Amino acid sequence: MTTYIYPYSQSALVSALRCLHILFIFVTCSCISYADTERQESDKVIALIESSIHLKEDSSRAFAFANNAIELARKIGDSKILGRALFNMGSLLAGYDRYSSAITYFNSAILAYRTAGELGEIPHILRIVGRLYYSVGDYKKAMELYMDGLSMYEKLDVENADKGWLLRYIGSVYRRQKNYEEALEYYGRAMKIFKRFDDQDGIASCISNIGIVYGYQGKDSLQLQLYQKALKICEEYNGYRRASIILDNIGSIYSNNGEFDKAIACYNRASEYLRGLKLRDHSRIARNLTDISYLYIYKKEFEEAISYLQEAQEHLKKTEKKRKLRMKAIYSAYSTIYAEQGNYKKGLEYHKLYVALSDSLADMSHSSEVAQVEFRFRREIEELEIERLRLEQVIEDQKYQYQKYGLLFLFVLLSLVGVVFSQWRKLSLVYKELSAIIENSKEQPDTKGLA
User: Fold this and answer.
1) Same domain, 77 and 160
2) What value, to the nearest 5°, has the Cα angle with vertex 122 and ends 116 and 126?
3) Which of 34-43, 283-292, 326-335 has the lowest mean pLDDT?
4) Are 253 and 220 in contact (CB under 8 A)?
5) Does residue 173 register a pLDDT over 70?
């Protein structure tokens, strides 16, 4: 009996399975290409973020880059990269004293990081938000956020330099509340962590703040010694931004003691450090130059004072950061100079400019009570915006998950089809061989009957 194999049916099946195999290869390549495209888009988000940081003095361009980073991150659907983009926008807004809007973005960043499972990023943001509340004098809210961040680090069993900064900031709240013993305790705890991680900036900051506490306790000579020690550390590791802050503090001591030449030397040195930074803080430089001008006013060297004020104004042309606040101080200085020189008409003109700016300026550091009411009012309004962003993020994440799982399912299905096809081919070859053996055995003569 002849075994018959259906060649037409077998050929059609082989062709169909080959098509499936080709489809499997195509989908696999598409998945790889999709992953590469997503990686490239993530790199674009990071590039936009870095561009906004480097252009922070140019507010319009900086905000444009930061906003584009957020939009692209939402399009990608990567919660982690979105968290980074939102945090960057919050930082940019905080730099321009737009604290209420900044907190909205920081809260959205926390939500994005929670969605991504990146809980380790959250305590850092809580520290930054706490610092904003600290800046407007809401020490209770600041302390709550700092403690929440500290608690998260302890639950995650994380020990890093950022935890040290949380402890340092808690110490500063206690210092503001005149609880100096608690402040010194937390500065000490922060110092231990900074030393462990060799964070020289943190160490210098703790020493400097301990010096501030000693100043409040009337230990002036010890305060100056600690400032000098912190300054030396900063200069050894090229921490010029921190060094400029410490020099300002030293200059204030000399100024209060009537040692104006020493104070001027400190402020000039601080300005030089700020000028040498890659990312210049023109607002800080303008403040230093204005402080120097006031010292020359006290010395009755008015022409020298005016030259520093003019230089300060040139720096303020390069930034919008705290421009009104700095110009207010400059107008006050001009008014004093011209009044001292007997030019009362010009002195009055600058005094009017000073008053106009004072009326329009929300000076949070000198009007903390009003600022806190305004701050909280804005926060209540923006809670709705936070909720909208939260829901939007949830929807985007769900879309992304559905796409990802859909591609994964198709990939697995086609992999199984590929495996089945491979096994079928092997069985088909075995079947052919068996059929051939059977056919050959039937065609051979029966030699036993002839014997």
Assistant:
1) no
2) 150
3) 34-43
4) yes
5) yes
